[in-house]
Amino acid sequence: MSDAIEILQSALVTAVETHPVLADELTGVFDGPPPRAAFPYISINDEVSADWSTKTATGREIRMGLTVWDDGESATRLHQLISHVEDAVAALPRDLSGWRIASIVFLRSFVARTAAGAWAGVVDYRIRMLSTA
Fold first, then answer.
1. Integer distance in angstroms from the first to the last C-alpha of the chain?
2. Architecture of domain 2-131
């Protein structure tokens, strides 16, 4: 059932890339940190999937994180971008190809600065989906 993760990830990328502010601010959305990318950008963290089936439907609980990377002097712009990421995730369509999102729960976010001086803002979610096929 890895197709649930693939479909969800595709929907997340579309939501971020079409968000009115993020589309103008970000240089890209990547599957993990890219070797060379201009700041700011988003990398999708590794996902964790677990069974969330019912008696009548196949289900998945997916833990997914997005990391917003920036190289600003302070974390001000990063915090603004994180807020827009939260808006984009909340606006995800509930009906996806073969799946329905039952719930999206914000788990946590944190901001850290790397030794190289870049800022990383991680936003983690728990998303529960049921198969409609």
1. 12
2. 2-Layer Sandwich (3.30)
